[in-house]
Amino acid sequence: MPSIEAKRLEALYGLEILDTPREERFDRITRTAVRLFRMPKSLLAFVDENRAWVKSEVGTSIDWVPRESSFSELAIESDEPLVVPDVRKDRRFSEHPLVVGPDRIRSLAAHPLRTPDGYRVGALAVMDSEPHAFSEEELQALTDLCRLAEEELADIELTRLLKLNIGIQARVRAVMDATSEGILLIGRDRVMGYHNRRFLDLFGLKAEQIDGHPLASLDGFIDRIFDEPDEFRRSIDEADERPEAHTRFVIKQHYPEVRDLEVYAAPVTDRKGRGLGRLHAFRDVTRERELDRMKDEFVSLVSHELRTPLTSIKGYVDLLIDGDAGEVTEEQKEFLDIVKNNSDRLVLLVNDLLDVSRIEAGRINLRVHPVDLPDCIDEVATSLRPLMEQKRQSLKLELPADLPEVRADRDRVVQIMTNLLSNAHKYTLEGGTVSVRAQAGEDEVRVEVSDTGVGMTADERDKLFTKFFRAQNPATQNISGTGLGLNIVKSLVEKQGGRIWVTSEPMKGSTFTFTIPTDGPTRAAAATTSASEARAPVTKVGTRILVVDDEPDIAGLIQRYLERGGYQVLVAHDAHTALEMARRERPDLTWNQIRYQRCSQRWRGCWPPPSRLTHRRDRLRGWWWCLCVGWYGSTSKANCARG
Length: 643
Ligand code: ADP
Known about the structure:
643 residues, alpha+beta, six-stranded antiparallel beta sheet, five-stranded antiparallel beta sheet, 19 helices, 41% helix, elongated, binds adenosine-5'-diphosphate
């Protein structure tokens, strides 16, 4: 804590008055003092650390005196004036230069001078060469003169603060102008206040169009600047409705340049906490987004390229294990199982990566139908039960019979449930319990997946849905995983109009809860398929199937599996051969994995015609896709159809 003397000195130095030239404003006061008191001498001095420095004087010959022997030093000790009617009778001044020197003063009155903050920094004195008994009236006059001097000090302080303020403002503006973000303050009355230069540059606006104008006056510009001007207005309005909230949204701009902009808005308050409006920061994220897009494309490309050889490895290993290429010994089977397990892990990773990149690129289309949730959950539970039994875990299902149907993509619901249930199984120790409960809400169904497993800390819970996050728990550190599952689950739940959250306690267990609306996702992203499109392919033994795949290994694999199932198989590796074969051999069904570019004409006369051949026929940038069912090793048909 600084002492009072330290604060007093700080106030004095803050005035920046020491060792400055004489000033008329103070000389006027000392001149008035000598006239008023009819005395020959007056001085106005400031007391710093070591001296009393004289700012103004009349009739004396001194610039400063050592602090310890000055009248001012005594005068600043209290708010009362120092009055000495006869200095010769006061031993304190026997050595004072004004007493013993040529000035030879005999009487004096000195009044302390205070800064606006009340610190006594100096004194105003009147002195006579004769002894003088100061009257009350005279002392009052001295106080009045002091007040005038103090007003001058206040004026100096104010000017200094103003300069400081102007300096700070200039610096703040320079800093704001140098930032890479465009900044706009919109007041509570929707009038635009502060903006920086970058804001003008970003949108090609002029300062006079902004300051003091209502936001609505920019309507024409907003229409010109943004791809979706109404979306921009809506986002600003929404943020306005929650004045305390920090909001963020991304919007595309096409004028004067094409950019992706991230808009961050935060409330601005004055020092007393009164709202001044919202500050909007516009950040150009075009490059970031481009990099993201490139990264996603890269991941997607690599994953696709990995998937084909993986499918081959997995498929042929399965054939070997099943004895299709002859008897395998116990040891060979053991080694093949290791290859199979590791390729399973790779397939999972690649599929997760592909899902993430599709979700992030907004390329997930939902096929929404009424879905019977208990049926879905039963299916997943049945497939996972053997795994759970291996760990002696019990699986309990509480699925009310009168649960309403939800509108969702069944395959995606299966994916969500598979992930949550397999996590519950993975992160629960031997002998634990996993329960699934479903209950109907007002316009949604709520599904809870609980376990008595290792649980997680609050910190881990917060990061759970981020990509690649895996909690560090010694009890489960050997369990393999990608850290992508829950990220995908969250996106899939939200895309279908639901929510997901988790409660958990370390070593007690976790409960993952998600909702699915009964009236389906509101977003347009959900593409509804017709009943015929959703129908599973119906084939009978003996059917002649033309397998078309430009990957000979994969085509061979499909051929083997189909032949094992009792079908007759023809194989083609390119569109031309496929068309020839289709014409010549008239297959009952085509299993197609290649694209036919602008060749729909050529199918004329083929049997079966393309419409009969395909379950899905999408016109996509001039390409015809003829797709029966995809093939991803041992993944389910549900997964395949997504390819
Ligand atoms: P993965 O299981 O492949 O690692 P997920 O995204 O499915 O990836 O899960 C991320 C992390 O969340 C897991 O690594 C695990 O640490 C934690 N986790 C998920 N489910 C549970 C659960 N039921 N109990 C405890 N921890 C869990």
